[in-house]
Amino acid sequence: MISIKIEELVDEMLTCLDIDIEHIKQNLSRLNELRSLVIKRDDDGLRKILDSINANSESYSEHEMTRHVVRKKIADFLGCNISQVTLSLLEPKLDVNKRNQVKIKKEQIKSLVEIFKREYANTIVLVSECARFNKLMIKNIFNYGKAGTIVYDAKGTINKQRDHKSWLVNCDL
User: Fold this and answer.
1) Which residues pair with 150 in a beta bridge?
2) Which domain holds residue 139?
3) Does the model's pTM come out above 0.85?
């Protein structure tokens, strides 16, 4: 009777984990799309993906509540605190088949989270570099033509500008 009840609760948890796995995969896809849209400077696409993220976050918070309820049921059944309910705690209490299912899900989630962290860091670097480049471009645009500004000609040699008028004469627009 005890093992049947715990296995039913673990089945509910495995269902929650399947949703978590799909959510992480979806977020990985969004990060890739986000980087692509940033590189392409596709403002409409960026707006759409941000709207999609906002809409999805509401439904995912409902899933998080469901997962919390399942963890609470397991904690009550095992007579422990909800913070103690982990997959590692459950594994030894299960038969071999369920233990393997839990182990597989745990490994999938761990692997996906590691990939997500790496891709998230890559996205942060890309956005930071874009911001830095844009700031540098704006600074150079508004400083261009001021005395002492260093510019490069087509041959790559350095020319120090003396005044704004010399820039206008040399500009081929």
Assistant:
1) 160
2) 2-144
3) no
**Nearest to 13, CA basis, from 63, 59, 60:** 63
| Cβ-contact 102, 87 below 8 angstroms | yes
Residue 39: which CATH number?
A: 1.20.58
Q: Which residues pair with 160 in a beta bridge?
A: 150
Query: What are the distances in angstroms from CA 125 to CA 118, 121, 128, 133, 138?
Result: 11, 6, 5, 12, 20
Domain for residue 62, yes or no?
A: yes
Q: What is the pLDDT of residues 79-136, one digit of tens each?
A: 999 999 999 988 988 889 999 999 999 999 999 999 999 999 999 999 999 989 888 8
How many domains does the chain fold into? 1
* Cα 33–Cα 37–Cα 40 angle in degrees, nearest 5: 140
Residue 169 included in any domain: no
Q: Is 72 among the domain residues? A: yes
Q: How far apart are CA 132 and CA 139, in angstroms?
A: 10
Cβ proximity of 30 and 45 under 8 Å: no
Residue 48 lies in a domain: yes
Q: How confident is the model at residue 165 (pLDDT cuts 50, 70, 90)?
A: very low
